[in-house]
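Support reply, case 0932

Customer input (verbatim):
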Amino acid sequence: MKTVLVLHPGQMGAAIGAQARRGGVRVLWCPGDRGRATARRAAEAGFEPAPDLGQAVAAADVVMSIVPPAAAEETAERVAAAGVPRIYLEANAISPRRAERIAALFPRQGFVDGCVIGPPPGDRVSVRLYLSGPQATVEAIGGLFHQSAVETVALGETVGGASALKMAYGSYQKTSRALAAVSHALAAHHGVERELLAEAERMAPSALAEPGHLPGVASRAWRWAPEMAEVAHALRAANLPADLALAAEEILHRWDPDKDATDLTLDEVLSHLRDPSGED
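Our regenerated output:
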């Protein structure tokens, strides 16, 4: 039986680990200083708590890092200090250069750069896990998710490939939703919400035509804002303008108080974009 260590069981990590368990994989997690919500998700997914990080790394065939982007490097450093994992899957929304720095902490044949695109997988929802790294190592990770809701896609052996895809995809996906929120807030300020929505619905499918999704965007913005900072790093490294990504990061940070909220209304979400100083 293969063993996977999930760092850490957030919504996505818990869901992906649960898919591995369906295929007969043993899944560990490290309680450490994690909160009650994390412990609940781990228990519901059937993960086994490990005594400490060192023992968990030693027991795992694969260490899977799925954490907020700002914590990716620190998480990798803690793992490297605790032991040498057989395989380390860096599956966070980070820039290619950050992925390369993290890769330097581990043996080359045991490191895979990954990215997750799609919602947390479940019975009726699938997700793509893109992987770039040594072929045999990538295939070993793919074997964990045979006939599951996680579709693994190999991107070649160059570290940074999967991270680059996530940055390219995220730069559009997150920025378009931030722009849509600002557009609806402006329309609401001037009392032309219905007219804006009518025009948006005449367009091809877009975030602007679906304002009902914005409360969900606000509740996840605490994770998306750091991703936009990573996108800005990636754009600068490619000599491309980072202004839109940085602006989206600033917009998303205005929803920091709405972290993981489940009862937000659209009016509340739009009002939270306004600068309380009134200086915008």
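We compared this against your earlier run and they match. Two observations from our side: The CA atoms of residues 203 and 209 lie 8 Å apart. The mean pLDDT is 93. Please reopen the case if you see a mismatch on your end.
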